[in-house]
Predict the structure.
Amino acid sequence: MTRTKAMMAAADSGMRKRAIPGSEEELPVMGLGSSGSFEGQDPAKLDALAEVMEEFVELGGTLLDTSPSYGNAEANIGRIARDLGVRDRLFMATKVRSQGEQDGIEQMARSAELLGEPIDLMQIHNFIGLETQWRTLKSMREEGRVRYIGLTHFRTSAFEQLEQEMRNKDMDFVQFNYSLMTPEAEERLLPLAADRGIAVIVNRAFNDGRFFGLVKGQPLPDYAAEFDCESWAQFALKYVLSHPAVTVVIPATSKPEHLMDNMQAGFGALPDEAMRERMRETMASL
């Protein structure tokens, strides 16, 4: 595959990393989601997904987030990672979404079988079976069967409950939606994560693609060059990453060219608070 000189220079310079609170471990800030992108059986798509994963690892990414609810994504991810020989270079995050205790245990065992061990992060998906699965996750962490545990959601309407759970549970990670278009997490969740020492994974940074519909045909502002931003995708991602409480952002894609563009957000400068305000003003004007 062909790689540009800019990509190679970026990879050589090293992606920005942030520490997992309470540990000495650091994660590259650009992760990779798999919802809607790593599903399917078409050979051409699987070839493209292999290229996506290969470039992701070569450019310094490690955290790959998936779920048993994403069709056959776990199976595809595990197989591609083994075929490429990169499984040991991935920080594997998946989820459990089951009401029953034994069903949850079996689901997590199946995920480990498909993805390969270790599972670095196990998350409860959208509060499903919350208290039941939380007891299991705590035991798994204590026994060393998973390294970290957490909760996920993807809707702003869940923020009130997320806040309560972040205050009351000893979680390592929390995952929620945050973007230029939906910045509500800045009000309470991101400051709370910083105060409680919880690592933050951000999903829906592009609002399921609606961001690109909003900026389509619009020129990228000249000031974007001041924080090493060369595309609208990087504009959205660098805004998210410029909040210090964000640990990793996980845009999903099945297209190698989009992966390459997204990953550049993890390199170079990030906007400061004054620049973040200009970015918000730009979005409000569209």
